[in-house]
């Protein structure tokens, strides 16, 4: 178990309060080449602190109640917890498999990690003693169904399913099969509907989250696709890592538009404070901001970061 006491803030952090915490809203982006970690102001897109992780990460999250950054450790095969902005490593643990994705539950009580060898880990911060389940082959993304986060949906391209995990067990409570690999899932804010990206069929499927029934679909580009949805549920963004395009669906008006971002477009996330989607372009080393309400879509801001950004998270 680790202590939640705060460490000191380094002088070069220009946006820290008296407790050593960064002022909200801020974000973090982690790059692959040297494990570079950049903390940035979401309002101005200015870099506030730059450090290096021990290893590198494909997924990260910020704890909502503490100055903590939780990341996968893809170099040694595990999970790490850092104090920010100093990036002091306060805890780490090994996992039996290469981590692929990581999420924190609604109240930041646990970290949830999936690994390439088809395992799911729920790791309570109070004990760091994980619950482990087998999941489908080659899992890619883990998402929580709002508003309670009592279900985790895990996309498993290896057998073209989405596995549904009941968090009160945890145990697998169901699965949804598609005609091709589902690469990501996002939910409407009330948790009633899920949108499942199946680029092999060029469709974004609308699924009743309670019954797991497919009710409708939208045209999707063909490629490995990441999804994000705005806080009001009106806009869904699909980032295509093959074509480098970002498509935004306006669900209220049944319309869509797209923009070319770069050689790749990955790990799209929505910022409530900026009312915008942010997307990573690894080959160009960009973080791009796109406002879905501005048609035609344009890149509103560009943050240049270290080589090959892999993941980002926001605290707002």
Mean pLDDT: 92
The count of β-strands is 28
Overall SS class: mainly beta
Number of helices: 0
Query: Helix amount, in percent?
Result: under 10%
**Terminal residue distance:** 27 Å
Largest sheet: 4 strands, antiparallel
Give the topology.
Blueprint: E1 26-31, E2 36-41, E3 47-52, E4 60-62, E5 68-73, E6 78-83, E7 88-94, E8 99-104, E9 110-115, E10 119-124, E11 131-134, E12 141-144, E13 151-156, E14 161-166, E15 171-177, E16 184-187, E17 193-198, E18 203-208, E19 213-219, E20 225-229, E21 235-240, E22 245-250, E23 255-260, E24 266-271, E25 276-281, E26 286-290, E27 299-304, E28 309-315
Notable traits:
316 residues; mainly beta; 4-stranded antiparallel sheet; 28 strands
Brief digest:
The chain has 316 residues and is mostly beta strands.
Give your account of this protein's structure.
The protein is mainly β. 0% of the residues lie in helices and 51% in strands. The protein is built from no helices and 28 strands. It has strands at residues 26-31, 36-41, 47-52, 60-62, 68-73, 78-83, 88-94, 99-104, 110-115, 119-124, 131-134, 141-144, 151-156, 161-166, 171-177, 184-187, 193-198, 203-208, 213-219, 225-229, 235-240, 245-250, 255-260, 266-271, 276-281, 286-290, 299-304, 309-315. The protein has a four-stranded antiparallel β-sheet with strand order 3-2-1-28, with no helix packed on it. It has a four-stranded antiparallel β-sheet with strand order 4-5-6-7, with no helix packed on it. A hairpin with a 4-residue loop joins strand 5 and strand 6 (78-83). The radius of gyration is 18 Å and the shape is globular. The relative contact order is 0.13. The model is unreliable at 1-12 (pLDDT under 50).
